[in-house]
Amino acid sequence: MRTVYLDNNATTMVAPEAVEAMRPLWCDLYGNASSMHSFGGQVASYITGAREQVAALVGADPAEIVFTSGGSESDNLAIKGTLDAFDGAKRHVVTTRVEHPAVLGLVRHLSQRGYRVTELPVDPDGSLDLGLLDRSITPDTAIVSVMWANNETGVVFPIPQIADIVKSRGVVFHTDAVQAAGKMPIDLAKVPVDLLSISGHKLHAPKGIGVLYVRKGTRLMPQVIGGHHESNRRAGTENVPGIVGLGMAAELARAQLPNEHRITALRDRLEAGILASCPGVRINGANRLPNTLNVSFEFVEGEAILLMLDDLGIAASSGSACASGSLQPSHVLRAMGVPFTFAHGSIRFSLSRYTTGEEIDFVLRHLPGIIERLREISPFAKDGEFERALAADHV
Amino acid sequence: MWDYSEKVRDHFRNPRNVGSIEDPDGVGVVGSLACGDALKLMFKLDDEGRIADVKFQTFGCASAIASSSALTEMISGMTLEEAEKVTNQDIAAYLGGLPEQKMHCSVMGREALEAAIANYRTGSQGARELEGRVVCTCFGVTEAEIERVVRENGLTTAEQVTHYTKAGGGCGGCVGEIERIISRITGAAPTAESQPLPKSRRMTTIEKIRLIEETLEREVRPKLRRDGGDVELIDVVGDTVIVSLRGSCANCLISQFTLKGVVQSKLQEFVSPDIVVVEEET
Asked: For this structure, is B174 an active site residue?
């Protein structure tokens, strides 16, 4: 059975060009870049090249690119590294309620270790109140961390404006750009972000490689200690194949950016098709990334939809409680106030540049039937007073 | 991805006995949209008192649909006396097992069956009635229900109770209490780090306010903050504690549960059983 892969916000296919670029680094050029022999030393030039490729994607200087093991490590390095640099002098962190668990889990962990955390709410569209963000910054605030784009809904926060606000208050600003990088233009020469996280496997590079952009002059305490690698910011022998793969992926993403409207068009076709063929549907989030569609089907449960899609080879994800393995639906949808009737039935489709129109049409052919079938099983979707009363009672 | 048995997958893909019965003899409804799964079960008896027709409607994940479908196959042709002996383990076993985190689906099936039988016998409304004290207010689970799954399934941890009943899986405010219920049944010592204070002599008001603040800080705020909320102590008048819910709790749909379930029950446990919590008028 073929796979229709529409879960690119979870992870992506490694670009064939990136695989090709990595090929010599396994068995031929396997030396250690720190070695004093030319066999190892020649590898350093590959790392230098990749650093330039990644820097070009986000408008940075190559010296500001720190390679890490991925997005979660980058987020941890940014936030803990900044707090450690203050050495307890500032103990307040501002973030949002809709961050990726790499940030939210970390700050909640820190809140039990003597740090104060403000989690900013979002409105039903998923947007932030920038006035509230400004007011939440205090003299004790060490760092503000706001994601560039949301992984579940694709909602894009106005990072240029937010960066201006935070920098005007003289506070360190971090953004988790794991979903944004490669999907929308980012120019750090113009946007005063101090720290920015990138994950390789979200943009067609391998898993296990990421980047923390660290603006020149930013104080940061390393979190992996024991070596001089990455300008003393992250110890550990470089993951050279991963770095080279990410460099190539970044170059491909940059070349692809002008064609992002093709992905937008496919996503819009999927969205319009679902809205036209399924009643009781809502789109979650306004002002989204080109590739993301988070759609809720009322009165059906997301995991059941996913399994029926899976039977057809369609890969997507859900914010329902059952799909997450917890008992509550997605923290992002709850923060947006999505009603429970819809939150449990949310499905995220996330496209990539490899997605075809034929695949979108395949989904549109089968999805309405799946929803209809599950609604036939559901006691809430029928016209009965008892069902309505029960639903009203609980919603 | 869940590791579902072939039988679960089959009953999910091809559910048996979906629909409703006109003029049923018994109807049972459990669960809710807010909780993420719900089951409506109805049956009709033949002249000999056997289940001649049984139908269900389920809102929920694959294992909830499969458990409902399996239940209808199992009880078809049974007398009510036979049917009421069906346990949640029987449903799970019929399906070739369920992932432990999904065992609550089998419990939901058994509860719907009991509600439908009670509806037939007593004309009760067919919805599951909360008998006795509610322990988990997020999902409406009573002490009696927790005791029953612990006994019938030999459960030993609060996490297992959450898998079987959902209790403790929302705000987490009742996990300590679930552990105490388990230890009462199994005779083991509770692992909860905090124990209620002995309540011997009357506290002064200042002592009481201090204890309320300590309890809020230690027992309540960490749980609310996990969901982006907070609570502020406004005033204490006798045994009435006036608080204000903040952040996400302020406009949460289940804030009343939070107030009564988490805040009040913790203050009753650690300060005084007579405490009543009310929200500040705004």
From this structure: no
Taking the Cβ of residue B162 and every Cβ of chain A, the question of whether any pair is shorter than 8 Å is answered with yes
Q: Which of A111, A322, A328 sits opposite B61 (nearest CB)?
A: A322
Rounded-to-integer distance, Cα A155 and Cα A293, Å: 10
Does A336 contact B at CB distance below 8 Å? no
Alpha carbon A185 to its chain's center: 15
Provide the number of structural domains found in chain B. Answer: 3
Same domain, yes or no, for B76 and B156?
A: no
Flag whether B129 is in a domain: no
Q: Do A321 and B247 touch (CB under 8 A)?
A: no
- Does residue B199 lie within any of the structural domains? no
Shared-domain flag, residues B118 and B140? no
Q: Tell me if A378 and B57 make a contact (CB, 8 A cut-off).
A: yes
User: A104, A327, A390: which to substitute to probe chain B, counting the most B Cβ within 10 Å?
Assistant: A327
Interface contact flag, B12 A307, Cβ < 8 Å: yes
Whether B40 sits inside 8 A of A340 (CB atoms) is no
**Is residue B127 included in any domain, yes or no?**
no
Q: Is A97 left (phi over 0), alpha (psi -120 to 50) or beta?
A: alpha
Q: Are B174 and B215 contained in the same domain?
A: no
* Residue-number span of the structural domain to which B158 is assigned: 134-194
Number of residues written out for chain A: 395
CATH number, position B164: 1.10.10.1100
pLDDT digits (tens, 9 = 90+) for B22-75: 999 999 999 877 778 899 999 999 999 999 999 999 999 999 999 999 999 999
| C-alpha–C-alpha distance, residues A19 and A47, integer Å | 16
Supply the ipTM of this predicted assembly. 0.87
Give the whole-angstrom CA distance, residue B219 versus residue B160.
Answer: 22
CATH no. for residue B242? Answer: 3.30.300.130
pTM value > 0.90: no
Q: How far does the CA of residue B63 sit from the closest CA of chain A (Å)?
A: 9
- Mind listing the pLDDT tens digit for each residue in B63-118? 999 999 999 999 999 999 999 999 999 999 999 999 998 999 999 999 999 999 99
Domain-terminating residue out of B147, B163, B194: B194
Claim to verify: residue B139 and residue B91 sit in the same structural domain: no
A-chain CB neighbours of B101 within 8 Å are 325
Catalytic residues of A: 322
Question: Nearest CA to CA, how far is B101 from chain A (Å)?
Answer: 7
* Residue that is last in its domain, among B88, B122, B156: B122
Minimum CA–CA partner of B38 in chain A: A379
